[in-house]
Specification:
Distance between the termini: 192 Å
Mean pLDDT: 80
Number of strands: 10
Structural class: alpha+beta
Strand order of the largest sheet: 1-2-3-4
Low-confidence stretches: none
Length: 505
Amino acid sequence: WVLGFDNREKLALYRKQAQELADKISDLDKRIKVLTDQEGARAKRAMHCQTLVNLQWQEVDVAPLLTSIDNLERRIREALEDNKALKDVAEQIGQQKKAVEQADQALRQSQLERDKVNDRIKEHEDNLKQLVDDPILIPLTPRQQQGLDARFDALAEPVKLENLDKLIRFVESAIRDDIDVLNKEVVKCERFIEKQFDEFVHEWPAEAEGLDASLAAAQDFFAKLTRLETDGLPAHEKRFFELLESQSHQNLAALSTYLSDARKEILERMDLVNESLAQAPFNQSTNQTTYLQIDPSDRQLPDVREFKQEIQQALSHAWSEDRELAESRFLALRRLVERLSSQEPENKRWRQAVLDVRLHMEFIGRETDESGVEVEVYRSGSGKSGGQRQKLATTCLAAALRYQLGGNEHGVPMYAPVVLDEAFDKADNEFTALAMNIFKNFGFQMIVATPLKSVMTLEPFIGGACFIDISDRRVSGVLMIEYDSEQQRLKLPAHAHQEASLEVS
């Protein structure tokens, strides 16, 4: 070969030689196949020849065998005909053969049907496997599978392949109906939740600032709920209701008891005052002696009546476990406490009016004679003369002092001294004696500054005296005067009593 840069001639030569070799190989393969076929035919002929070599004449000549068979069958028939027992056995054998043939036929039929059923089962299993493995289908959760099985188990018809489509449609229809009901319930629940959100927004606007009363803001509402639960609001709420149930009831009951006891105390103390007034005549004449009694009664003020109603409202349902009733009680209690603690002038006047039980009462003077017949009623001093008003005022003053300073039951007042300046300067002796007698019956110790003209009238009611003199309005002098306890009069010279009598006259 001459070296160069082109091997196309060499490649063409190799391709030509390869084609020639391939043709030779093909011819040789054909010749090998022909030889192989010839060898097979010779082997088959050799086998047939060997069979013929091994064959006996008896195997080819079947006529004697058929004759022998006929002879045996004839002999069997003759034996059966001559022997009844064998004949019966033969009939039984024939019947059993027929039964066996029928059983074999039934067995083959059953096996055939079994094979068909197995084929159908295999076909259904293959179809089921294809359906299960279908990527389009969404696998059911255990709960869904359980619910679906329960629906099919509740059907009146058993589930078969023939009625499967019908039952599936029935179950699908029932599921759709249930879905419609649930969707309506979901809509109802959504509206209820949004209503609760709206109530929260309106009731607590500060907490709900920026929140919309819709399901879109549910996460924000739930976050607030979580925060409230984390802060222990239910525990605080429980403690709040416990305190509301116990403390508020106790405090309001104590307030109600205070008002009731204060009124009762006024009535009891007025009974003591009236007992003392019953011992001192109010008016005396030759034909009649009268006594003054003070009759207390409720004024029925609207503010007081409304205040007591609010207390009863706050106390109502105190032991009820209903939270709504408890909240309404709390609101009523809060309004009441806020008004009681307010420092506004109007509320302060209202607080004074409802808590001072003395202002709830009015006192009426009733003048009665010794037989209890009512002679006069005094609601005020209007329409009375100056002397009558002074007498009524003095009597009421003594009664008021006895009420304020009264001791236990019929005891003396806790503070007995009563100082009267310029006492009875314009009153007559009768009124002076009446007033002093009232003060004496009430148990008071009278300290009286009076002009000389009233000394004789006051002597029975005092235990001592002193004479005070002022010179030039700058120098005062005091002269003690002895008192005669037996005569209940001052130990004055006779001319002093005469001068006093002249001044009185």
